[in-house]
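Q&A FORM
Asked by: J.P.
Topic: structure of Acyl-CoA dehydrogenase

PROVIDED:
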Amino acid sequence: KQPPLPLRPSTPALLMLRLASSRSAALGAAATRTQQPMSIRLVRVARAHSTQAVDEDEVAPVRPEISQAANMMDIGTRRIFNEEHDAFRETCRKFYAEHIVPHSGAGGEWETQQHISREAWLKAGEYGLLGINCPEKYGGLGASILEAAISWEECMYAEGSPSGPGFALHSDICIPYILHYGTEAQKEQWIPGMCDGSTIGAIAMTEPGAGSDLQGLRTTAIKQEDGTYVLNGSKTYITNGWMSDLVIVVAKTNPEAKGSAAMSLFLVDPKLAGFSKGNPLKKAGLKAQDTCELFFEDVVLPPDALLGDEGRGFAYLMEELPQERLIIAVDTQARAENAFETTRAWCNDRVAFGKPLIAKQTVAHKLAEMKTAICINRAFVDQCLMLHHEGRLDTATASMAKMSSTDLAWKICDDAVQLHGGMGFMWETSVARQLADTRVHRIYGGANEIMKELIARTCKTA
Ligand SMILES: Cc1cc2nc3c(=O)[nH]c(=O)nc-3n(C[C@H](O)[C@H](O)[C@H](O)COP(=O)(O)OP(=O)(O)OC[C@H]3O[C@@H](n4cnc5c(N)ncnc54)[C@H](O)[C@@H]3O)c2cc1C
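REPLIED BY: S.T.
REPLY: Here is the structure written out as tokens.
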């Protein structure tokens, strides 16, 4: 019998959600928001075109889309959100500004040590920002995927889009595997610690010889007569790997079997004998992220380390990948918006040939092109978020969002560096780090060439 779950503390995020559900509190908070004048203006326009009498109290303010906002990252925008979401976003913004940004700059503490601190994980847990989309019963916030998406975005909206925190992978990739395929005992054993930040999660699929083609995995977990499994092999490029307290490992349980039937998932405790971690890898970007190699040498896994059914690992991965791709799409879209706003401000301030850069038509037109591309992609990403919220996001659509957003972010960050001139090439400049950090998004979570394969399947007629 499992011990009872610890009582859920009232986190700042939970308190904000509850506070915001009170209509008066939400309206009071909204009065201070920067977009209010724009919203009110748009309501007036909507009313002027309406033939029906309108009850003042019943009209919700019309929310501007990002193309209409003073700043794309303003709170109070986008039709998919409401005032409760805005209050939650304020909490996230405060958390990142106070607890993440001060450690995240160029040459800062986290970049130098190549990982963030345990305190930051615990603080995120204290704020209720780990397991936002996970039921309260297991220590999560019990909120929807939209609140989770707000937290992903706010990390990217923070100054310089900090690269260290692997919170989204932990909360919205690792936890769902346990929630969807774990036993009640596994959920109670692992998830509360993941929600309070004391247990850091990672997922290990990729190996030195197999990334895009997971059928080529060589790590094995062979079942013994006593029901245990013996794990051998290695993994590489594992996000959160160096700090991990729990790793979801993909291994072949039946190496003779053809295709997907060979693979299973395991919940592996890195403290087990025979499990070792490499040092965080030196990367071309995401320098504060503890990506590393993992090695397994005759690691004895208890029978209850198996996640779900033996031989179903590949099917589980395919089920969960759309959410992983949506996270990457949301992250990179938000990063592009952040880089654009930094560049817009720079072009208005920086003087060359006696005038601000934006006085040059070529510069102004470049900004116009950037803004248009970002706004178009934002509409699609928000559509995908709503599809996922409604349980209707399919693999091909998620792949389109992943591919288009990662290509967009790369292009926008490159343009941003160009418009910053020499300053744009300096590591201390946020757009330089954003360009470096966003390069990998076209590779991981499935390379964009693989995304095209998945999308192309929907283009063929029967
Ligand atoms: C910073 C970072 C973090 C990562 N985090 C994790 C993690 O947490 N967990 C994890 O398991 N993995 C992780 N990865 C691994 C990542 O998912 C893989 O690198 C990615 O899937 C590509 O696999 P690969 O590197 O083996 O490249 P390969 O599979 O060798 O492919 C190389 C290139 O070939 C091309 N290509 C491959 N297949 C095709 C095809 N069918 N058609 C056309 N072109 C193709 C693509 O351009 C691809 O980029 C991470 C990687 C990085 C760099």
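FOLLOW-UP: The mean pLDDT is 90.
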